[in-house]
Design brief:
This protein is mainly α. It is 69% helix and 0% strand. It contains three helices and no strands. The longest helix is centred in the N-terminal third of the chain and has 26 residues. The radius of gyration is 27 Å and the shape is rod-shaped. It comes from Fodinibius salicampi. InterPro entries: SHOCT. Pfam families: SHOCT.
């Protein structure tokens, strides 16, 4: 019954599946490629951002800032 007509146009499903796989691969790989090429931020800038977001407390901020300044200013 269906063997002579190959399910009458079901081959388009394979094209959709292949296209979806390609799109998912491209959009999952490209963000990683661009994020790795960013220039690195200065350690003090990262520390300031973490403090501003509330990830670290004032005491920890001061201590880490002191350590960073000691290591970058011999």
């Amino acid at each position: 019954m269906f063997y002579d007509h190959h399910f009458i146009g079901m081959h388009w499903v394979w094209w959709i599946i292949i296209t979806l796989i390609i799109l998912l691969t491209v959009f999952n790989v490209l963000p990683y490629r661009y994020s790795s090429s960013k220039s690195s931020e200065a350690p003090l800038d990262i520390l300031k951002k973490r403090f501003a977001r509330g990830e670290i407390e004032k005491e920890e901020y001061k201590e880490r800032k002191r350590i960073i300044e000691e290591n970058h200013n011999p």
